[in-house]
TrEMBL record:
The lineage of its organism: Eukaryota, Metazoa, Chordata, Craniata, Vertebrata. Gene3D superfamilies: Cysteine Rich Protein. This is PDZ and LIM domain 5. GO terms for cellular component: adherens junction; filamentous actin; stress fiber; Z disc. Residues 93-151, 152-211, 212-271 form the LIM zinc-binding domain. The keyword Repeat applies. GO terms for biological process: actin cytoskeleton organization; heart development; muscle structure development. Residues 30-59, 67-78 have a biased composition (Polar residues). It is found in: Cytoplasm. Its main location: cytoplasm.
Length: 271
């Protein structure tokens, strides 16, 4: 006599219908870019001379209004540069601005040499000998002018971004501002998910909101084909007979102790 199944209800055959995991929130992705036209200059080290940051090593004088604005969130790869001060020596390089020989102290920036009095911001004309500068579309700007006219604004802190830029959710962000709501780690260029408008890293999203396949115990991700049977959710490829592994998707099936069985093995196995 064939073995009975767990309950009279379970002895009735069922048919699992296939669906697509459209109920999940859309998967998002970010892109990390450098602020447009920012470049990391090749800072040439002179063959002779001593590198010094003291004011006495240069003829240029820092302007009174060269103080920076509010401090920025910590960017891991800021590209704001500072010129190197080289004292007078045997070397007489050519100035990148006037194309004349430099006889005396000079600056090194972007792999070129400059008269200290000619290394100026393209907009405000103030010297950049003692402050940060950025190259934008072939021109050099002091950090303040770049921040005012070119730098994108962060969608979280509303401050200007002077380093790596995260593009996500149609906004720009500091790397340190676009983070997973659950763990607080920067998402950077990894996949993320939205829940109630807040970003979650993939690990935390599935731990908090995801549906786990009863067959393989891995998450059912957005776009996956799945079905519901025996009170559980399954990947379409995971809903198979527990004995012969034949796919039961769209087929008549039976169950014993929550294990799906094909018609052939429904009464011939004992778990």
């Amino acid at each position: 006599m064939p073995e009975s199944l767990d309950s009279p209800a379970s002895s009735r055959p069922g048919v699992a219908s296939l669906a697509t995991a459209a109920a999940f929130k859309p998967v998002g992705s970010t892109s990390i870019i450098k602020s447009p036209s920012w470049q990391r200059p090749n800072q040439a080290v002179p063959s002779t001379g001593r590198i010094s940051n003291s004011a006495t090593s240069s003829e240029a004088v820092a302007p009174a209004n060269s103080a920076l604005g509010q401090s920025q969130p910590s960017d891991q790869d800021t590209l704001v540069q500072r010129a190197e001060h080289i004292p007078a020596g045997k070397r007489t390089p050519m100035c990148a601005h006037c194309n004349q020989v430099i006889r005396g102290p000079f600056l090194v920036a972007l792999g070129k040499s400059w008269h200290p009095e000619e290394f100026n911001c393209a907009h405000c004309k103030n010297t950049m000998a003692y402050i940060g500068f950025v190259e934008e579309k072939g021109a050099l700007y002091c950090e303040l002018c770049y921040e005012k006219f070119f730098a994108p604004e962060c969608g979280r802190c509303q401050r200007k971004i002077l380093g790596e830029v995260i593009n996500a959710l149609k906004q720009t962000w500091h790397v340190s501002c676009f983070v997973c709501v659950a763990c607080g780690n920067p998402i950077r260029n990894n996949v993320f998910h939205l829940e109630d408008g807040e970003p979650y890293c993939e690990t935390d999203y599935y731990a908090l909101f995801g549906t786990i396949c009863h067959g393989c115990e891995f998450p059912i991700e957005a776009g996956d084909m799945f079905l519901e049977a025996l009170g559980y959710t399954w990947h379409d490829t995971c809903f198979v007979c527990s004995v012969c592994c034949e796919s039961l998707e769209g087929q008549t099936f039976f169950s014993k102790k929550d294990k799906p069985l094909c018609k052939k093995h429904a009464h011939s196995v004992n778990f």
